[in-house]
Amino acid sequence: MIRVSARSLWLLTMVLSGANAALAQTTNPGVMKSFSEVKFAPDDDRKCLSSATESGDPATGPSTFILKAPANCIVPWHYHTAQEQVIVVQGSVFTEMEGMKGRLLSAGGFAMMPSKAKHQFACHSKSACIIFVTFDRVYDIFWVKENPPKSALPR
Fold first, then answer.
1. Which residue ranges form the domains of the chain, and what is each CATH number?
2. DSSP run (H or E) holding 135
3. What is the structure's pLDDT at 29?
4. Helix count (H) and strand count (E) of the chain?
5. How far apart are CA 19 and CA 144, in angstroms?
6. In this predicted structure, what is the pLDDT of residue 79?
7. Cross-sheet strand order for the sheet of 100-105
8. What is the radius of gyration, based on Cα positions, of the chain?
9. What is the pTM of this model?
10. DSSP letter for each residue of 60-110
11. Is the pLDDT reported for residue 117 higher than 50?
12. Which residues, listed in sequence order, are joined to residue 56 by a DSSP beta bridge?
């Protein structure tokens, strides 16, 4: 009979977890491309948006998108099961989250919306806004139709 101490079992679990994580990382081929290679497609949910999936598979896990929004494009109140992180690359994007004052974010601006946090945004530029968006798990979207939060979006 083999006796394993709790400490040994914990150490073995940590080593196997690390090996599994390393294996998972090595099976991912990685992505490198220039912006000129991005293939935008019309967004299914908001006709004023174009999007491109840059990495991951939004149907099965974490993913990164690039969104392109023309001037005055508004994405109304919604939320996701996943945490969403946004970095503005071009233009000015007015971003609102329930319970927080809206902010006008320009290139380099960052926002993080926790899981199920209601939020909305609008491209508030004379030209298109470019936004990198990441989700930490499967992508979904739920539109807030009843009693949406009060908005301060510039019109």
1. 35-143 (2.60.120.10)
2. strand 129-135
3. 76
4. 1, 11
5. 42
6. 97
7. 100-105, 93-97, 119-123, 74-79, 142-143
8. 20
9. 0.77
10. TS-EEEEEEE-TT-EEEEEE-SS-EEEEEEES-EEEEETTEEEEEE-TT-E
11. yes
12. 63
